Amino acid sequence: MTNPLLARFAGEAALVEPGRRDRFEACLDAVMALDHGPEMLREAAAAEDGFWPEPGSWKAAYRPYVVADGILQVPVKGVLLHDFSFAVSSFVTGYTYIQRAFERGLADPNVKGIALICDSPGGEVAGNFDLVDRLHKARGTKPIWAFAHEGAYSAAYSIASAADRIWVSRTGGVGSIGVVTSHMDASGALERAGLKITFIFAGEHKVDGNSTQPLPDAVKERMQARIDGLYDVFVSTVARNRGMKEKAVRETKALCFSADEAIAAGLADAVGALDDAVAAFAADLSTPPEQDENMITAEAHEAAVAAARADGEKAGREAGRAEGATAERTRTKAILGSEEAKDRGALAEHFAFDTGMSAEDAVAALAKAPKAAAEGQRNDFLAAMRDEKNPDLGTGGAHGEHQGPSLTDRMRARHGVTAA
């Protein structure tokens, strides 16, 4: 076996759809045939430094970051690989790349939602469930939709299940919720070739499962236990992500489901072409969320009521002041503008500005008062007001002490008359 990517799967548990083995191997061969294929393999472990390259770098083509209409499109295509930091067309996608693109999208204010575009027969167990847990934990931060275009099988379905919603193209499918490994017994071929392998080892189980000998039952049982344990993790992960019972997930029996079958089994939510599904996602992102009254806490409700009450009281006070000022102007105008105020200007002003008399009472009092025909008559009237026999109309205090200017004094001041 000369392909180092394919060698990763030899004798290892895998999350793959066995029926797509030819495509699986072809994808890995295609990557290693690329000019930069071997370099990608060497760079995987050092991907944390300068992960997002400059546009002119060859790496930029294999670490895409595509945002359209506020949606980041993350490819989950081809064979899915642990500790691999590139997305190579439809051939392979690394878990490291998916995680880094997803994290960048969460932090990017221009990204309103994240779309996982899936077309994969599956991939490695290593790294898959850790990645899926991170995606699931981010739910609620930004909407996440997955699109099986065309297939999301095994490791790819594990990733898709972390989304809020899964779409499947009409000719696509999902499923293969299972784990597989293999053992090759080449002992018969070696014997026919006249070859015999002898192991020199220490430790009872050091050479268990080697391909030059038949597989003992006890070793097979331990291998099965390992696969069963990984299957339990896979089942519980899908059940959690999809809100399903584990029993229902196990009842899929690792089958692959068409679009309609996937919806009936609870493994998908909608059927549609990728363009239509992405358009629906964009429309969903632009729709304001409905307000849930149950989400309003009692404290927030009380604070809102108190604020509304304070605003109402303030508005009431301002309205009262405005209404009072308007009424006072109306009263003053009615007194000073009345027919009875003519030739009784000083008394009309007194009623308007120095008393709280209503306009009707003031006008009635003016009608009974003599008109001031000449200046001399007005001064005589004021003189009479100064007579000590007249009552003091000021604000009186105890024992006749004045607490303020009398009406007589205010009249003198208003008309410029000095005391004799």
From TrEMBL:
InterPro entries: ClpP/crotonase-like_dom_sf, Peptidase_S49, Protein_C. GO terms for molecular function: serine-type peptidase activity. Belongs to the peptidase S49 family. This is Peptidase S49 domain-containing protein. GO terms for biological process: proteolysis. Residues 140-283 form the Peptidase S49 domain. Residues 310-332, 387-420 are annotated as: Disordered. It comes from Methylobacterium gregans. Residues 310-331 have a biased composition (Basic and acidic residues). Transmembrane segments: none annotated. Keywords: Hydrolase, Protease, Serine protease. The keyword Protease applies.
